[in-house]
Amino acid sequence: MSEQLDRTVVRAGPALRRGVAGAVATIGLILVAITYIDRPVARFMAVHVHDRLPFIAMAAMANLPSPLATIALVGIVVAHWCGIPLNRTGRMVLAIALATLVAIMIKNQLKFDFGRVWPQSYPFPGIHDHPSYLNDHVFGFFPFHGGSSYASFPSGHTTAITAPMAMLWLLAPRYRPLWGGAIVLVIIGLIAADFHFVSDTIAGFALGVTVAAGAVSLTAGWIDQGRRR
């Protein structure tokens, strides 16, 4: 038992070092963006982007994963009740759906924890009268403030699109341009429409990738068992 534990620790060492290095690099990139990038980019988009509808449509793609994941879970449960076994595709869909919903749940908690104001005020329910950087020159974090007016960090849309696309990137590498392209389009839409600061999207991307990587490491063997079905 002791030898087996030692081998496990040795194998986990490089992965742990990569994870720590990735976390440190991500935090550093976020801090740089908050200090030097967020405000200039927000001001640039406010001045130079006149037709925001295309960018709003790009960002809206991230509204799809959550309801699709819920529908997939319901369908899989019904299939299980009917005695239909899951093949590899079904298992992959289940893993992606669960990872997507877990990532969304975590980002909701982080939004409350950080309490960041949005780049700009928009006439959306609950956030139409909130303080923002472009409208009120308010820039910062108000931890545990609560409310949708203080929920810019991390970007929920980026998290919602990144978690499933990152899993597909790992599980279905043949179509990586499609998975990566979806993430890029959403992030461009969010920044260009001043829905989010650049650092918000970096944090949302990092969260989605982290959840996806963890989900794949936990379920890859189980997913591949479905090949025999």
Automatic annotation (TrEMBL):
Gene3D superfamilies on file: Phosphatidic acid phosphatase type 2/haloperoxidase
Domain of life: Bacteria
InterPro entries, sorted: PAP2/HPO (IPR000326), PAP2/HPO_sf (IPR036938)
Record key words, sorted: Membrane, Transmembrane, Transmembrane helix
Residue ranges crossing the lipid bilayer per the database entry: 20-37, 57-81, 93-110, 150-171, 178-197, 203-223
Claim: Repressor is one of the keywords in the record: no
Domain Phosphatidic acid phosphatase type 2/haloperoxidase: 94-218
Protein name: PAP2 superfamily protein
Lineage: Bacteria, Pseudomonadati, Pseudomonadota, Alphaproteobacteria, Acetobacterales
